[in-house]
Amino acid sequence: MMSDEKKLSINLIGGLHTIVTCVRCDVHDFVRFMSKPTLSVWNSSTYHEALRLTIIAVLTTLFTVTTVLAFTFVFDRDSIGNDVMFSGMYNQFGGAAGLLFVNGLVGPVFEEFIFRNALVPFCASRILISSSLLFFFGYFGNPVAIPLYIFVFIGFTAQDLSNRIRIRMMRFWEKHFPGIFILITLWFVVGHYSTAMLRDFDWLDAGIIALGFFHRLMVSMLAGYLRVKTGTMWAPIVVHSAPNMVLAGLFLLLRG
Q: Which pTM value belongs to this model?
């Protein structure tokens, strides 16, 4: 007769094999989607699948942000605790609680509604929401906001279009969705950089910027994929928020 310990071992091995299989399938689906983004998978996951995908994405972004922090910690530790952006937010929003709330929740919510809200089958109202938040959030002064100016125009004009033209725009949106997805994905990444950050940097700064670029690209790709796959906004917001909280928390630990 099989002992309880052996049964437990078999169950653990079986459970681990199931998890590995699910993760492998999820990674395969993600890579296939990124090779050609499509709306054919729009809102195709169940709640439990969405939760699993979100957890995997969060762990991935935590790994990438940890890589950035480890490199920075080894070569330029003081820059973490003296970060200009975090210092400004710390002073402006009333200390640690305000920083964590704004950087870990408010910022991701606003940015995800700006960048990911419109990653759906063509919807003029969603484009208008993203456009309005863009101007409210202050991206209007950034050159990378130019593509969204086009979306603003489309959003406003589409409200009064005939059904015939609206259908054509829906077909155009679906046909060119891969390009739209890639544009928004890269736009999110580039939007987090400024000319001041890229001016007068040495090779060490270049390494940190490159790792930061990779991390933001992973966040943007995963958030966009989850937006399309799950059809929700909470999944990309969680993926965006998790590494932001880690960054803000480390700043608080090391601030000078």
A: 0.83
